[in-house]
Amino acid sequence: MRSLSLLTTLSLLTILSLPPPSESVRCHPQDKKVLLKIKQAFNNSYDFSSWNPDTDCCTWYIVKCDRLTNRITRFNLITADDVAGPIPAAIGDLPHLESLTFHKLPNLIGTIPPAITKLANLRTLTITWTNVTGPIPPFLSQLKNLTGLYLSFNNLTGSIPPSLAQLRQLTGLSLDRNRLTGSIPDAFGDIPASLMYVDLSHNQLSGGIPRGWGGFNFTTLQLERNRLEGDASGLFGRGKSIENADLSRNLFKFDLSRVEIPQSLRYLDMNHNKIFGSLPAGLEPLTFVNVSYNRLCGRIPSGGVFQEMDYSSFFHNKCLCGPPLPECK
Ligand SMILES: *[C@@H]1O[C@H](CO)[C@@H](O)[C@H](O)[C@H]1NC(C)=O
Ligand SMILES: *[C@@H]1O[C@H](CO)[C@@H](O)[C@H](O)[C@H]1NC(C)=O
Ligand SMILES: *[C@@H]1O[C@H](CO)[C@@H](O)[C@H](O)[C@H]1NC(C)=O
Ligand SMILES: *[C@@H]1O[C@H](CO)[C@@H](O)[C@H](O)[C@H]1NC(C)=O
Ligand SMILES: *[C@@H]1O[C@H](CO)[C@@H](O)[C@H](O)[C@H]1NC(C)=O
Ligand SMILES: *[C@@H]1O[C@H](CO)[C@@H](O)[C@H](O)[C@H]1NC(C)=O
């Protein structure tokens, strides 16, 4: 019948113009629902324009789906001025997230929401260069799978929660460039041996280095520009594997002559402290050293790094002498 074949043609056309069959849509409907909530919470900002509700969310920018499970495993929102408001609580409803990043979002404000603790599979949490405020929440210790916790360059206040020492998988921790106060918690004396990279610099931290840090092998330890005090010599010594240490602009006070420089050390900045004694043997293989503005004495060794650095690495000490400073008397 003529009308039937017309109908067939029409329905064929309809089928052809439909979106691809559902088996090729990878996005999990629950994830899509949550992502659209997040988009709305950020006021449908321009950065989410690829998040068209009629399309597969596994093709959207900012997020990534796992190849096998098709669940959202990555959320990476970076460099967007028009993303404004607090971190939406809905972020906690993406249960398969392994990596969450908010970076360079000057108008991201508010505190770190408790909803984040629902992300049991999270391995990396990055909230950097934002205007997020409030304390570093102790509840972050519930994210047992975290290997990286990066909270640099925000407006975080209060002290470092001791509970963070319970994150036993951590390899990297950066809390630098906030307004943190108080001391480095004693609980940090028992940090996991996996922790290689620690940056607590540019805060207002006070007190000493935790007892126990002497037993650890940091690769990079940045503590500069705080108000830390006391003896930091335990960070060094034979058999350590520290490579980069920046202790500058603190109130550390110890005898440097008694420090055994580990063979692994490459970068050592200790400027602006109260360190006394003389320069120990073993510094020559370094590529950078700065011990200016301390209370050191004695002759500057020759060769290696001492040939590379200019006087500004050594000036303003009690009585260091010899090239590149004036000759010893
Ligand atoms: C969201 O967008 C509307 C309309 O452009 C605007 O009036 C409102 O202030 C925005 N809200 C935020 C939190 O940016
Ligand atoms: C925080 O907000 C201020 C004022 O809008 C802005 O100047 C600053 O760059 C922001 N900070 C960051 C780290 O984005
Ligand atoms: C860590 O992740 C694994 C899977 O990668 C998961 O089985 C486990 O439950 C997670 N740990 C916690 C404390 O949730
Ligand atoms: C941090 O917050 C304080 C008080 O809310 C504000 O005065 C200051 O400008 C903020 N700093 C930055 C870098 O945004
Ligand atoms: C630190 O590193 C050195 C050299 O790699 C190693 O011999 C030592 O056992 C390590 N110590 C700890 C506490 O991991
Ligand atoms: C060493 O530190 C002092 C004090 O901050 C600084 O003036 C000098 O430029 C630094 N020198 C080098 C080589 O970094």
TrEMBL record:
<comment type="similarity">
    <text>Belongs to the polygalacturonase-inhibiting protein family.</text>
</comment>
<dbReference type="InterPro" id="IPR032675">
    <property type="entry name" value="LRR_dom_sf"/>
</dbReference>
<keyword id="KW-0732">Signal</keyword>
<protein>
    <submittedName>
        <fullName>Polygalacturonase inhibitor-like</fullName>
    </submittedName>
</protein>
<keyword id="KW-0433">Leucine-rich repeat</keyword>
<dbReference type="Pfam" id="PF13855">
    <property type="entry name" value="LRR_8"/>
</dbReference>
<feature type="domain" description="Leucine-rich repeat-containing N-terminal plant-type">
    <location>
        <begin position="28"/>
        <end position="66"/>
    </location>
</feature>
<dbReference type="Pfam" id="PF08263">
    <property type="entry name" value="LRRNT_2"/>
</dbReference>
<dbReference type="InterPro" id="IPR013210">
    <property type="entry name" value="LRR_N_plant-typ"/>
</dbReference>
<dbReference type="Pfam" id="PF00560">
    <property type="entry name" value="LRR_1"/>
</dbReference>
<dbReference type="InterPro" id="IPR001611">
    <property type="entry name" value="Leu-rich_rpt"/>
</dbReference>
<keyword id="KW-0677">Repeat</keyword>
<dbReference type="GO" id="GO:0016020">
    <property type="term" value="C:membrane"/>
</dbReference>
<dbReference type="InterPro" id="IPR051848">
    <property type="entry name" value="PGIP"/>
</dbReference>
<keyword id="KW-0472">Membrane</keyword>
<feature type="signal peptide">
    <location>
        <begin position="1"/>
        <end position="24"/>
    </location>
</feature>
